[in-house]
Specification:
With about 150 residues, the protein is of the alpha+beta class. Helices cover about 45% and strands about 20% of the residues. It has one domain. It has a 4-stranded antiparallel β-sheet with strand order 1-2-4-3. Helix 3 runs antiparallel to helix 4. The radius of gyration is 16 Å and the shape is globular.
């Protein structure tokens, strides 16, 4: 068990290390990009990474406060499921209704790997490769289909 301070230090080191790992990786159109805070350019759609003591995940969170608009965004992703799978693979879970620990409703599309831990530096390379591979595929999908979501935004 780690203290709150140790836990924070490990998380900072982990995400800083991943940021360095990805620092030379350009976007598909050649731009320098902050992969930990991927700029979808749509306020309510976020690409996120999470790692804890049992698994690592990458996910798309649709966080619009208006339930109907959130569902519209999610349904648009569902409409694009075939090309989504072609770009990023089929092993993603689609959750139209996801409630976080403080009770906020999201829609979420998520992919996980198990048996890795943020507390085991020996598993970091596996996690980083998982993140990199999936972020690059997700970014390629997004570069080709983000305009569809921008049209919904207006």
């Amino acid at each position: 068990m780690f203290s709150k301070k140790e836990n924070k230090e490990i998380r900072v080191l982990f995400y800083t290390s991943f940021g360095r790992y990805m620092s030379n990786q350009r976007s598909s159109n050649g731009e320098k990009i902050k992969w930990l805070n991927y700029p979808t350019k749509i306020k309510e759609i976020h690409f996120k990474l999470h790692c804890d003591k049992k698994y690592a995940s990458i996910f798309i969170d649709i966080q619009h406060k208006d339930e109907d608009i959130r569902k519209l965004y999610f349904d648009q992703f569902k409409e694009l499921k075939k090309p989504f799978i072609q770009y990023v693979g089929a092993s993603w879970s689609w959750e139209k209704e996801y409630k976080n620990e403080i009770g906020f409703n999201y829609s979420r599309i998520i992919r996980k790997i198990n048996d890795v831990s943020i507390y085991d530096q020996n598993s970091w390379s596996k996690i980083f490769e998982f993140y990199k591979s999936n972020l690059l595929k997700l970014e390629e999908f997004w570069m080709n289909f983000n305009e569809v979501f921008k049209q919904l935004e207006s």
